[in-house]
Amino acid sequence: MMRPMKLAGSELMFGDGCLEYIKSVPCERAMIVIGGSSVEKNGTLATVEGYFHEAGAETTVFRGVEPDPHFSTVRRGADAMLEWQPDLICALGGGSVMDAAKTMWVIYEHPELDSLEKILATKPLPKLRAKARFMCIPSTSGTASEVSRSVVISDDETGHKHGIGDMEMMPDIAIVDPQVARTMPAHVTAETGMDALTHAVEALVSNRANYVADVLAEAAALDIVKWLPRAYDDGDDMEAREMMANASMVAGLAFTNVSLGIVHSMAQTIGGFFPVAHGRLCAILMPYVIDWNSADARAKAVYDALAAKVDATDFATVVRDLNRRVGIPTLAEAIPDKDAYFANLQQMAEISLADGCTKTNPIIPTVPQFAELLEKAYLG
Ligand SMILES: [Fe+2]
Known about the structure:
- The chain is α/β, with parallel strands linked by helices and 380 residues long.
- It has two domains: 11-180, Rossmann fold; 184-379, Dehydroquinate synthase-like, alpha domain.
- It contains 16 helices and eight strands.
- The strands form two sheets. A six-stranded parallel β-sheet has the order 1-8-5-4-2-3, with helices on both faces.
- A hairpin with a 6-residue loop joins strand 6 and strand 7.
- The chain is globular.
- It binds fe (ii) ion (FE2).
- Residues 195, 198-199, 264, 278, 282 line the site of fe (ii) ion (FE2).
């Protein structure tokens, strides 16, 4: 049976200059969560704080969310929230910052959920928003955490990445202003853009796909193929930046409702063993998964229809060409330690099968078939 669709939280703002919307948000005490120093250096943090202050709100900043955030960082952020008592949490950054802040919010609202094990075991999550509403301002165009119900958090001890999905974690307010993404480095533009393309393509072939999600995901996929090279070549091309910000968000509206597939299962798994950016892994794996899924007639029809709309015959080739065009390396280049990769292959195959994204893939591989895919993706 179809599941109910939810297209973002209560307020979805997008387009050049929409950051100013902050001034209209009722708030007394905002806690702004950031990652590294780039949003400070490029002036975005000061602009965001300025808008809050103009609206009469006090602000404080929690700094230092690392890429692929660990639960210990979430715990520290939650402690800072419990002390500051914000009525609005504002995640300003990429997917890691938004995911970590969402999880901090869960603990802030329910301090008894004080470990990753407890949060993972609590399904569904209890109601949030008794203490604070949640705002996302993405600084990259790819993860779509600003419109998604899910997060990925790493276990401090094992390093493994755990995906948590729950409608309660859908941000209330998403402010998707391409100006915030303007200073994103070219390689991050490429990686996050390819992550967004993967979201769109996996949503289209998901075995939970539906009409509304298809409309969104197809538009996003076609726009990303068209606009990513321009955004990659020239970060100041604001038309391309805006198209990528919007397409990423729209792909997110789709996938958060119909889920993903085994590109994500394997990317999340490999990323738990080797420090390679999520979008980079998705980009590398996608053509191999398109070939694998093409044994399914419905998936093949989806890929062929996408290829036809970009004047090509094979969508896996479209992705391979796009990867080359935007500087995505091979898996062997991304993970030079071949022995370590193959030593972990069997375990990675097992974890990929257990990943939550696997169950919505058109054809579910066995463990040996996952191992074969992981091997093929490495050997090229
Ligand atoms: Fe992703």
